[in-house]
Backbone:
């Protein structure tokens, strides 16, 4: 159990996908202008990333590795992720049609989120077990969600702050993300997993 | 008929497009969010499009001194912020948590058992979430806030955080064409 908790801590904070790996920056900058859109995006990404890591583990272990088709890894994973996104869309539509209609569920954004593919590739190359792969996906998405929501809060304050004209909007967002990234790099000394 | 929902500043604003018109009513379809900050110029740049199926039916009339709605018009719609957040949290997080807990309980029994337990947990969580989310069904029906400003490709901007001002056009029917 301690190992599982360390996996979560490592993937969520020490190796944060946005601030230490610099993946998923497009949706990170695009949906972090307001906290409520950030929460919606974070929840959808958490669901898809965790689920896709499980399916990607199955594709790697049961299909690609036995048939020695590792060179098809990227293409296969893209297909798996697209299928998981479609599956998620179906699940949300079944669970609550009004929610699906109201939210738009951000799923088209997740299909093109490079963090999802990046985490899948890193997990496959690591050769982890099924549960560890699931938890790595979950921990990574928790880290993504945490940073997205923190950053959305910062940007809501920046929107009303007296920022020099030339830095308004995305530039001050990137400067703030850089400072956040420096802070998160301090966790690298923890050295877990 | 859906319950009337009084709009206030606790709304999440989005865009919807008129995709069909009948005699007194129009059908709206929510526009998909885009990666570039969900700006209102998606009709020009093509990065966001309305869903093919209509979602809501509303009256064509937009109040006095305003032209009735026509095919292709873009409207601002608002959904209750708290209901949307809670419902999406339930729909996404609950199946995920049950899946992870079920997989963890079969940790020592091998990968095959862990996969079976995870799938069972996911299914159970989805069923519970489906029942639980029903409580926000009425609150998730949007209200029309007004016409969206017509923007050009050169005026791309991110959405503001200002307080919304609503005009009361209740949504009267939900369904598909």
Residues:
């Amino acid at each position: 159990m301690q190992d599982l908790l360390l996996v979560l801590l490592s993937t969520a904070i020490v190796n944060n996908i946005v601030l230490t790996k610099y993946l998923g920056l497009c949706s990170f900058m695009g949906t972090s202008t307001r906290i409520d859109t950030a929460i919606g995006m974070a929840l959808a990404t958490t669901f898809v990333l965790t689920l896709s890591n499980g399916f990607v583990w199955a594709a790697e272990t049961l299909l690609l590795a036995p048939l020695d088709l590792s060179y098809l890894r990227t293409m296969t994973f893209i297909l798996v992720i697209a299928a998981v996104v479609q599956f998620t869309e179906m699940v949300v539509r079944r669970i609550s049609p009004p929610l699906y209609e109201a939210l738009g569920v951000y799923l088209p954004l997740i299909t093109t989120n490079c963090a999802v593919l990046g985490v899948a590739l890193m997990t496959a190359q690591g050769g982890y077990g099924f549960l560890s792969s699931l938890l790595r996906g979950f921990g990574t998405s928790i880290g993504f969600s945490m940073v997205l929501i923190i950053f959305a809060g910062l940007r809501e304050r920046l929107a009303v702050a007296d920022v020099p004209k030339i830095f308004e909007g995305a530039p001050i967002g990137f400067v703030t993300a850089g400072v956040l990234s420096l802070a998160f790099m301090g966790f690298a000394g923890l050295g877990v997993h | 008929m859906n319950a009337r929902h009084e709009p206030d500043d606790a709304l999440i604003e989005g865009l919807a497009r008129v995709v069909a018109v009948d005699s007194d009513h129009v059908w709206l379809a929510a526009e998909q969010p885009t990666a570039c900050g969900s700006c209102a110029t998606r009709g020009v740049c093509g990065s966001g499009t309305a869903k093919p199926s209509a979602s809501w039916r509303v009256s064509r009339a937009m109040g006095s001194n305003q032209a009735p709605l026509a095919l292709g018009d873009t409207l601002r719609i608002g959904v209750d912020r708290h209901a949307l957040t809670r419902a999406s949290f339930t729909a996404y997080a609950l199946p995920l948590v049950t899946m992870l807990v079920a997989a963890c309980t079969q940790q020592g029994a091998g990968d095959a058992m862990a996969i079976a337990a995870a799938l069972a947990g996911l299914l159970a969580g989805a069923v519970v979430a489906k029942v639980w989310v029903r409580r926000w069904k009425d609150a998730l029906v949007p209200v029309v806030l007004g016409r969206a400003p017509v923007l050009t490709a050169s005026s791309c901007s991110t959405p503001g955080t200002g307080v919304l001002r609503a005009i009361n056009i209740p949504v009267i029917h939900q369904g598909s064409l």
Summary: Chain A has one domain: 2-190.
